[in-house]
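Example 3.2
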Amino acid sequence: MLGMGRLRAFLSHLLQPEGPKLSVPDPARAGNRPKSCPRLDLSGKVALVTGGSGVLGRVIARTLGTCGADVAVHYFSGRARAEEVRDDLLGLGVRACAVAADVASVDSVAAMREAIARELGPVDVLVTNAVEWNAKKTILDQSIEAFERSHRSCVLQNVIAAKAFVPSMIERHWGRIIGISSEVAMQALPATADYTSGKRGMSGVLRVLAREVGAHEITVNEVAPGWIITDQDREWANQRNPEYEERVPMKRRGFDQDVANAVAFLASDLAAFISGVYLPVCGGNVMPGI
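Structure, written as tokens:
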């Protein structure tokens, strides 16, 4: 224990004018402080959502538009749906266009790039959401053609899109690439080999790309939805599945807006130092290893 003399000396030191003081805010500088949390502001950016006319793509497109981005809504065959999304975006006060392309064709994607550049400008935010769906079959029953279609839509789409859109991102020293994966990619469920391997292949492409373009302030990430509720589920009154929900730690299914919110975050400057990430949006149903 301190003797009384040493204790008095210690207390005297603390009470000296040059001792520690509380930091009092300067009222003159208070106006420079942020009034609230930074917003997801994508004003001045051009976003492309492949599969933008689909049940998930349309929510992603509208959310990016709500955050201020001008949006190109890609479609392959659903022109009317894509134009509906485009019109909704125009109603938000942002520029928008609907563009058709085969995402597994070099020439078709190049033509789409030029069409978007004429309408909106070069693409800053690329969301690869389009996918080829096949009937669930075992590996022994699934056709080679079905495997090939999955790989073209998942893997080749991202390679072709990178070749088409990354060079202009490098020139501007800014870009966001966000691939839409799935929790299925980590689950290895029966009768999903074509889809699972396609999404796994997509992950490989995007992670390598993240390393290759990071020095140019371009981030590359994936968002992996679980079995989410979309407009299709709402229309079919198919929003509950107790067996699935019981496996999810949060005991419910997520919503399409949850996925779109994650995409918007990764597209924003709030995620400027996040790259190479596989982000599940599935209530904890899958958890990547650490």
